[in-house]
Amino acid sequence: MKAQNKPGQPAKQSGIYQQVGPRGGRGDERTVVAGEPFPPTDVPGSHYRLIRPAHNGAGKGGKR
């Protein structure tokens, strides 16, 4: 089973997350940055699931 991220919990990874309802229905997508809290969901009991991780390498101290 994929990780369930609850509203208000800090994101472990940047990317695009989709709302998943309490019975498995899928909702809107949100872009969330690592370390920032997940926004409130439209339906109580819903959570977020990562669908597309960010691949830009931001914050890794690479060459400029």
Question: Could you characterize what this model shows?
Answer:
0% of the residues lie in helices and 31% in strands. With 64 residues, it is mainly β. The protein has a domain at 15-53. It has a three-stranded antiparallel beta sheet with strand order 2-1-3, with no helix packed on it. Strand 1 and strand 2 form a beta hairpin. The protein is globular, with a radius of gyration of 13 Å. The N and C termini lie far apart (38 Å).
Short description:
The chain has 64 residues and is mainly beta. The protein has no helices and three strands.
Keywords for this entry:
single chain; 64 residues; mainly beta; 3-stranded antiparallel β-sheet; 0% helix; globular
Mean pLDDT, as a whole number? 87
Strand elements, count: 3
Poorly predicted regions are: none
SS strand fraction? 25-35%
Helix proportion range: under 10%
Going across the biggest sheet, name each strand in turn.
Answer: 2-1-3
Q: Give the helix tally.
A: 0
Q: Please identify the structural class as seen in this structure.
A: mainly beta
Q: Which value, in Å, is the CA radius of gyration? A: 13 Å
- Major beta-sheet overview: 3 strands, antiparallel
Order of helices and strands: EEE
Shape: globular
N/C terminus separation: 38 Å
How is this fold's topology laid out?
Elements: E1 15-20, E2 26-32, E3 47-53
Antiparallel strand pairs: 1-2, 1-3
